[in-house]
Amino acid sequence: MTIPPAQLPSVTTDLTETTTPAPPSLRPWLTELGRIPANRNFAVPFAHIPWATTMIVLRTEQGHGSRDPLVLGPRTRASYATADKPLGCLRLRLAPGATGPVLGVGADDLTDRVVRLAELPGPAAGLAAELAELRHDELLPYLEKRLPRRIRESPTQRLHRTLLRTAVDTVSADPTGGTVPALAGALAVSERQLRNLFTAGIGVSPKHYTRIDRVRRVLAAAGTSSWSHLAAGAGYYDQSHMSAEFRSLMGVSPRSFVDGTRLPVLPCRPSRLG
Question: Which spans does this entry mark as compositional bias, Low complexity (predicted)?
Fold first, then answer.
C-alpha cells in the first residue's frame, strides 16, 4: 500500500544538517555554517520548523555550484515542502543583532520572508555573486577576509548585539526563566526596551522567541521520554500547555507530527522588500 505524502514520517531539515562554528573573527555577526545534503528521496516531505534567526542560504544542486543566495528571515511557524530534484543548501546563520550591520535592514523586515541577498542594502549584498560560486569549505575563509572590513557598526549596534546574546544565552540555559520580566531583569533594561531589541535585532518578540525555543526543544527530544516529561523539561506548565503551543507553531499536535500528519506543502518563493 502506498502511504499518502501527508502521512509519511516527518523529516526536519535540522536533523539532516551538519554545522561548522564560525571562526572568532566572524562571530560578532555569524554563529555557524550549516550544510544540508541533497535530498534524493523526493517522496518524503521536509518540515521547516520555526526558527528565530536570520540566515543567508545558498542552494546547491548536484553537479552545480551554489545559486542565487537568498536571505531567510525568522520563521514564526512551520512549513512543509518536497523536492523535485536533488537539492541541498548551505545556511549561514546570523548572530542576534547582526541583521542590521550585515544586511542593512532590521530583522523584523525579514520575518517570515525570503528575499534575494543581492537586493538588500547592507554590505553582504556586494558579496552575493562571489558567494554563489564558492564551495562550502571556501565560504568561511572567504568571509573572514571580506566581511569584517565591509561592516561599519555603531557603538549602539554593538551594545544591542551584546544584550541580545545575553538574552539568548539566558533562554538557552533555563527555558523556565525566559519570561519577559526575567529577561529584562537579566539585561538591566525595561520590558519595552527588551521588546524593541528583540523586534529589531532578532525579528520576533521575546515571548515568541521563547515559544520557538521551547517547541524546538520538544522536537529535539521527541521519542526519548514521555510527553509529560518533555513538557516539563522544555519549560511548559503541563502537557496541555505544550500541546497547545506546539499546535500553534507547527500546525498539528506533537503526537500527530511524530506520526507523520502535517499541513499541506507550500512552495518557497523569494519576495521583494517594500
Answer: 9-20
